[in-house]
Amino acid sequence: MFILRSLFPLHQSLVPVALALLMITPAAGQLIQISGNGRTISNGDTTPSSRDHTDFGQVLAGSGPVDRNFLIRNLSQVPLQILFFQRTGTHPGNFTITDPPEPVIPGNGEASITVRFIPPATGGLRSATIRLVTTSSIDGDFQFDIAGELILPAPNIIVLGNDVVIPDGAFSPLETNNTDFGTLNLGDTPRTRTFSLQNDGDQTLRIGGLSVTGINSDQFAISREPATFVPPGGETSFDIRFNPDREGAHRVTILITSNDPSPTERTYSFTLRGTGVSQYPRIVLTGNGLEILPGEDSPRPENHTQFPEADLQAISTRVFMIENTGDATLTISGIQILGPHGAEFSTSNTPPVQIDPAGTFPLHINFRPTEQGVRIADLQITSNDPSTPVFEVSLKGLGGRFKLLGIERAAEDTIITFTTRATPGAYIYRILYSPDLETWDSVGSIFSGGRETLRFRHRGSNRAPRGFWRIEEESL
Fold it and tell me: How far is 456 from 407, CA to CA, in rounded Å?
């Protein structure tokens, strides 16, 4: 501490005494400025930083003291007097002034002060406050905090995903480091990500625990634990599985406790994110370009669920289209045709069939009546559409306008036997003959009221080496 003394004996007049008192009174306009590393330090600064040298940084065990120089500027034209300075705060003993400034700084002049950080015997962060009291009219009591840390040999935990470092406390998940699991359809195979845990310290790293926390922690699980002990320079890994069972964005926090002495990394944490969506396939069946709703039980010719009238044993084919309007792959696992006359309907398609979103698949249904009259059946399509796992629709066809029962020879003639339409009415049946299946000639006709068996004798036809007959029906 500097003490100002009177420049005159006590027995002199009071005027010189008053002048002496003015010497310790701050002069109007005196201004002080303190800087470190070329950066101005604010009076009352409590956040040491390496940028202005108030943070002395980390010092390894065995290293010597660290000095930092600070510049004191007198921004006024009149001399600035430093009355005293001191070290206060939590650990003043770890800091000392090795090069104090001159007590008086001339106008527009400057002086330097050197502060030394003396590392402690034990590791950890040390801090103190530097205080300078001057005759400055502003900031006459100038204080700022300083800090330094001793680093002892210790383990140091580093976590990586996809070979990219995940900083401790990382809150924004990224695909690049595996912390963002992306979007997964509910019910799909769970998605697993692997994370690496490294020790680049000087002592063995001991993993105390690994946990998933947060309100969505049930959507993630640890599928593989890391090793408990990781030697210096060593590495272990662990797996996290994302298996959503509800929609939405799910965020959780991964906590890793270890013997890393760093206060922030003693419990290493980072955030994971994954989104569950309801992506399902959806089956749509169309016939003749018209949608056929599941459960539709009124067959219509417009959508091809009602087949055209067909001769007995003749095949009538209709092509339906299966479309996947969902956003996941549609799997057709089974196609059946059931019902009273299901055996008269068939399909040439064999499951399983995979249909991508927006994809289509043609379904061929054949109708081959064996009896006259109305024939009905039910088409069943089994798929992984969760809303319609069994798509069922009714089919109908009319069988047997007439049925050719036989062709037999009688001397030089040929006798053709056939049944007529099953419904009553007025019909003409014309019999056509061809020797080569290219040219057809009418050889006769028979009138019928329906529901009967007719016989037609083609005279003289048996003399030809071969022949073919066809019957045509016309309603009157």
Answer: 10
CA distances from 403 to 86, 447, 451, 454 (A): 121, 16, 11, 10
Out of 1.20.5.110, 2.60.40.10, 2.40.10.10, 3.30.470.20, select the CATH number for domain 14-151: 2.60.40.10
Q: What is the pLDDT of residues 250-279, one digit of tens each?
A: 999 999 999 998 888 999 999 999 999 888
Q: Where does the chain hold its CATH 2.60.40.10 domain(s)?
A: 14-151, 157-277, 283-399
* Residue found under tokens 């991508």: 356
The whole-angstrom separation of Cα 398 and Cα 307 is: 7
> 165-218 pLDDT, tens per residue?
999 999 999 999 999 999 998 888 999 999 999 999 989 999 999 999 999 999
- Do residues 302 and 398 lie in contact, with contact meaning Cβ atoms separated by under 8 Å? no
For 231, other C-beta atoms within 10 Å of its C-beta total 13
Q: Which of 324, 418, 306, 423 lies closest to 365, judged by CA?
A: 306
Helix (H) or strand (E) holding 19, with range, is helix 14-22
Radius of gyration of the chain from its Cα atoms, rounded to whole angstroms: 50
Instruction: Output the six-digit token pair for 99.
Output: 């090069």
CA–CA dist 158, 226 (Å, integer) = 13
Could you tell me the pTM of the whole model?
0.44
335 vs 322: CA distance, rounded Å: 12
Round to whole Å and give the CA distance between 300 and 283.
20
